[in-house]
Structure formats: structure tokens, C-alpha cells
Write a structure and sequence with these properties.
The chain is an all-beta fold and about 130 residues long. It is built from no helices and 11 strands. Strands 2, 4, 5, 6, 9, 10 and 11 form a 7-stranded mixed β-sheet that branches. A 4-stranded antiparallel β-sheet has the order 1-3-8-7, with no helix packed on it. β5 and β6 form a beta hairpin.
């Protein structure tokens, strides 16, 4: 069992920055990857970024590439999402997710993940 708690959301103006954190606790030792997903108003949950615990391989959605950076601190069991040059279309509830281990499902798919945080709201005003 893994518990995930997101933090760092808030209200920012377009062009601003935010850093989201996802602290994992519980039986995290077997986890292979962590992902960030978001769900905007009236939209489906979509992939944002992911990172592996081992090597730190990163993955990004095209919409955030070059603006967002995902990172992790293995010692703290924490994953971060640095968001720069924010746009109004980035407004969404951001969720972090963890898997139980490696599997033949891509990190961009919601179905890969077993644990989800409650989400943190990010509002970007124009």
C-alpha cells in the first residue's frame, strides 16, 4: 500500500511558475515509476510527465515539453513537477500516481498506475 500526497498548487498568472510536490509513503520500495496527470474543467484526465525511480528516465506530454520538468528525490520518496511559463490551458487538478513495479503498460497510460493522490488545484489566470 502506498499513499501519495500532492502539494504546491495555487493561483498564478500566465507566465508564472509553480512547483508541485508528491510525497510517497508506505510500501514504496517496489515502485518503478511515478507520473503526473491533470484533469482540466470538462476534460479527461491526461498525461503530463513521468519519471522512473531507478535511472530517472523522464517522459513528457508534447503540450508541456520545454516548460515543465519532472524530477525525483529517491531519499525523500518525493517527486516534483516544476512548471514554468504557465498558460491558462494548464489550469487543472494535478494528480500524482505510482505503480507497483515495472510492467508492459506505458508510463503515459493511467491504467499503469495503482496509487493516486487526491490532487492539487492549479489555476492560471490570463
Amino acid at each position: 500500500q502506498v499513499q501519495l500526497v500532492e502539494s504546491g498548487g495555487g493561483l498564478v498568472q500566465a507566465g508564472g511558475s509553480l512547483r508541485l510536490s508528491c510525497a510517497a509513503s508506505g510500501r514504496t520500495f517496489s515502485s518503478y515509476a511515478m507520473g503526473w496527470f491533470r484533469q482540466g474543467p470538462g476534460k479527461e484526465r491526461e498525461f503530463v510527465a513521468a519519471i522512473t525511480w531507478s535511472i530517472g528516465t523522464t517522459y513528457y506530454a508534447d503540450s508541456v515539453k520545454g516548460r515543465f520538468t519532472i524530477s525525483r528525490d529517491n531519499a525523500k520518496n518525493t517527486v516534483y513537477l516544476q512548471m514554468n511559463s504557465l498558460k491558462p490551458e494548464d489550469t487543472a487538478v494535478y494528480f500524482c500516481a505510482a505503480d507497483k513495479g515495472n510492467r508492459r503498460i506505458g508510463v503515459r497510460s493511467t491504467s499503469r498506475y495503482d496509487y493516486w493522490g487526491q490532487g492539487t488545484q492549479v489555476n492560471v489566470s490570463s
